[in-house]
Amino acid sequence: MQLRSIILYSKSGEKRVLEFALGELNIVTGTSQTGKSALLDIVDFCMGRDEVTLPIGPISRTVSWYAALFQLPDTRAFVARKAPAPGRKSVTNAMLELGADLEPLDFEQLRVNADSTMVREQLGGRIGIGDTAVDATSGGPLTAHLGHAALLCLQNQDEVSHRRWLFHRQAEDGIRTALRTTLPYFLGAVAEDQAAMQQQLTAARRALRRLQGELKAAEALNRDVDVTLQTLLREAETRGLLPEAGAMEVVADRAGAIEALRRAATIATLPTPMRDEEQRRRELELQQVRDQLRRNLRDVADQRQLLADQERHESGFTSAVGRGVSRLGAAQLATVRPDREGHDLRACPACGSELSEPDPQVGDMLATLDELRGQLDAVRTTRPGRERALRQLQEETDQMRQRLRGVEGALSVLSEAEAARRGLQSRAEEQAYTRGRIDAYLAQLDQAGPGGDLARLRSQITLAEQVVAGLDAELDPQEVEDRLSHSLNYISSDMTQWADRLKLEHGTRHVRLDLKRLTVVTDSDEGVAELMRIGSGKNWVGYHLVAHLALHQYFVVHGRPVPRLLMLDQPTQPYYPSDVAKQAGMQDAPAQDADREAVLRLFELMRDVVDELGGGFQIIVSDHANLPEPWFQNRVRYNWRDGDALIPQEWIDQHGGNAS
């Protein structure tokens, strides 16, 4: 699978087609902000990625569809993806067309007829990725598809010179696990039919465990059958499932016990009486009457308490007034009562002689005494009425309590009837449970049987063990490990040779891939050195390049189902001035002759690897570099300088925005 062309469709229907040569090194060179990096994002999108990574700018303001035309082993595939709506971060809809002579379609022909999953399945199946599953370290089996293969074919400008991440999107959650589990498959260490064989092994082991369980149960049945039969007979008799008198005594052998249990298992359940609707209604009415009587009793009790409190307060008041009357009564001793009603206030309280003027204090005391006596008379007048009210309330209380006892008695009778009904229901449930136990045990006896079925089960177990052993041998983990080591050693040979050619640090030693850590490692005087511990961006780019070239050479030579395509974005960035330096007047070229020679070595290596594979491999590089060598210029497909760019200026003028 290689890339024939990338196609952009403007919002007004114009089409821009970028053609690429198959089986060759293709170079897209140009200055910054001309759209070179977007080429990789477009191809990633058209290979089935849902997340949209295309930049927001002229391309998002002008393009309505993105498309790619792929060359497959036996046909061509046109994949188009509609530009996402503003604010959308992912798209699943797609268009897929297959045809031997297919060319980029016109805007009017674009339509949604597939999704990203179908694109991956169809393209992956065409290059040989079947319905293959490999074991993941977590989460169960992982199905390899075109999206996993694409991780080995793309290197954007943030990845190609990264010291920690070797593969595309390696820093994202879940991608590292996907790479570790699918790389052995793409390298051929895991057989394509491993998933089917693994499923067969799982099923065979499950069948073996089932047969072993059946054998164990059959052996236990034949060993303890008489004891279990007698136990079940005793339980059936206790539950009333053996109604005939002396049923246990007439069971003389195993056959008789089994027959008695079969009869017990078929006996009808005790009928459970249903609650009468009238009874439920009567119970509800009685509960309502009971609740009302209890509320009435509380009301009467409150009234009685109120009268009792009033009587208590009056008693205290009467006592206080009586004490006042007793004390004031002494004032009458010295007064002389005349013929008319009243007191003689001129008499001296001490000697009784007549005073020249009346004593006002004695008059006040006698007035108060009269007032207190009047209050006592008023209190005594109200007392009989209160006592009658208390007696009436007591009578009402006695009557309501008597009615309440009658209602509660009736409810108790109904409750006892309900308890008896529930008892019958519980007994029916116990009988049903015992019948179920008897049925289950007799079914086991029928399946296992005494003697004969034991031999059959042992024979089936022997056969199942042979099937499991055979599948285990075919899926030997050590054999998979040996094949993987062989593949990595093959790749390591090319990596070491090319690292030396690029004059990378520690490149003359044993350079190799570490699939567990997903990085490049090499030997040094101080031990094993990982990529992250090898200094400078120039070395990081170089090791990225030799690793991916060695992998793809292996894929091509061994016919592995990986697209014959490698896209690199800005591999020479460590050798070129930064944008700040360019704005300060530095030229768009390596600053030193040594850097220019290093850049030349990178492109020469890419050229030579592609040429050695004889059209079986395609590289597309987007870069600032524009070397003057004739062979380099012959491989430049597009040179975006002096106003030329991915998005035509006419599109920008028509749909708004600016080139930057």
Total DSSP helices: 16
Would you tell me the structural class of the helices and strands?
alpha/beta
Shape: elongated
Q: Identify low-pLDDT runs.
A: 333-341, 578-587
Helix content: 40-55%
Rounded Rg: 52 Å
Major β-sheet strand ordering = 2-1-4-5-6-7
Mean pLDDT value = 80
Number of strands: 16
Distance between the termini: 34 Å
Largest sheet: 6 strands, antiparallel
> Strand fraction band?
5-15%
Structure overview:
The protein has 660 residues and is an alpha/beta fold. 53% of the residues lie in helices and 12% in strands. It contains 16 helices and 16 strands. The chain has helices at 38-46, 58-62, 116-126, 146-150, 175-186, 194-238, 254-266, 277-328, 360-448, 452-474, 477-501, 537-557, 579-583, 593-612, 630-634, 649-655, and strands at 2-10, 15-19, 25-30, 63-71, 76-82, 93-99, 114-115, 133-135, 141-143, 154-155, 512-514, 519-524, 527-530, 565-569, 618-623, 636-640. The strands form 4 sheets. A 6-stranded antiparallel β-sheet has the order 2-1-4-5-6-7. A hairpin with a 5-residue loop joins β8 and β9 (141-143). α6 (194-238) packs antiparallel against α10, α7 packs across α9 and α11 packs across α12 (537-557). The longest helix has 89 residues, at 360-448. The chain is elongated, with a radius of gyration of 52 Å. Mean pLDDT is 80; it is low at 333-341 and 578-587.
